[in-house]
Amino acid sequence: MPRISVVTAAYGPTATFLSDTIESVKAQALPPGWELEWVVQEDGPGPFLATKFDGVDFVRYEANEAQLGLAMTRNLALSRVTGDLVQVLDHDDVLLPDAFTTLIPRFATSSIHWAIGQADDLLPDGSRASFSSMLDHGVVPAGRVNEWAADNGGNWPVHCAGLMMRTATLRALGGWAASPADDDLAMFAALSEVVDGYNDPALTWLYRQHPNQTHKKQSWNSWSSVGRRIALQRAAAVRAAGLFAATSNASSVDGAAVEPPELGKLIPKENYPGR
Predict the structure, then answer these.
(1) One Pfam family for this entry, by name (predicted)?
(2) C-alpha dihedral sign at 189, 77, 202, 214
(3) One digit per residue, pLDDT tens: the chain, 275 residues?
(4) Facing residues of 39 across strands?
(5) β-pairing, 59-63 with 128-129?
(6) Are 90 and 70 within 8 A, CB to CB?
(7) Which of 46, 126, 206, 272 has the CB geometry, 3.0–4.6 Å to 122, for a possible disulfide?
(8) Does residue 38 contact residue 118 with C-beta atoms inside 8 Å?
(9) pTM, rounded to two decimals
(10) Three-class secondary structure of residue 232 per DSSP
């Protein structure tokens, strides 16, 4: 049975709206034959969010027990994903009920490796602000997103907090980049450079605006220009290397088709050939 894996990097001190996020995932409709898992990874040395997920049987929760940052926390969650597709969801955002039934069918075409729907801003007073997409709706050819970003001062026309992606492709590109800010842009720069995606016109999620958002912190803002530079450099390097996704043997949902060996079966480093 194909599976969609929601990935959330959580952090207790700023998880004020987590209850709304949980309810939005619980309300998700699924295409026939699909199942859901939610992989939650809590960052920080004193985790305390586990009880928030009591009674939610599709949640797989773990805690870092250390402050590792957003990118590392996301990648730790990714290491536990068992689904064919990954849906990114921050701990303060909201998925609308038809998000999965809207986006999952886009992956029936083997050339599509990422998809995203439109988002409204969810404002502190509960009202919503909508925005027109900066990309045409429909198939987005490989490289098109990064061309737009390069022409617009390192600003991307896709909000990575709402991405759905093939798990295998995300893993093949190394997951989220080890950047102090905009780790998702650096990831997406590589992804969207080598594969086609789909920009769906449907409204599928809400991006919450509030004072404690990570990207509103001074430390994040001071590193943002570096993160965006890394993303542009990564896109240019991928393009120059001539990398592209082979589609001749791709299936409609193959995100978790290649499973790693169990940890107990890994070859110890001291026994590697040639050591």
Answers:
(1) Glycos_transf_2
(2) negative
(3) 899 999 999 999 999 999 999 999 999 999 999 999 999 999 999 999 999 999 999 999 999 999 999 999 999 999 999 999 999 999 999 999 999 999 999 999 999 999 999 999 999 999 999 989 999 999 999 999 999 998 988 888 999 999 999 999 999 999 999 888 889 999 999 999 999 999 999 999 999 987 666 665 666 667 778 888 888 898 999 988 888 765 534 445 644 444 444 444 444 444 434 44
(4) 7, 60
(5) unpaired
(6) no
(7) 206
(8) no
(9) 0.88
(10) helix
| Distance (Å, whole) CA 92 – CA 17 | 5
- Domain positions in the chain: 3-271
Cα distance between residue 64 and residue 133, in whole Å: 36
Parallel, antiparallel or unpaired: strands 85-88 and 3-11: parallel
Torsion sign (Cα): 124, 71, 144, 97: negative
CA angle 228, 229, 231 (to 5 degrees): 60
CATH for 3-271, options being 3.90.550.10, 3.40.630.30, 3.30.930.10, 3.30.2350.10: 3.90.550.10
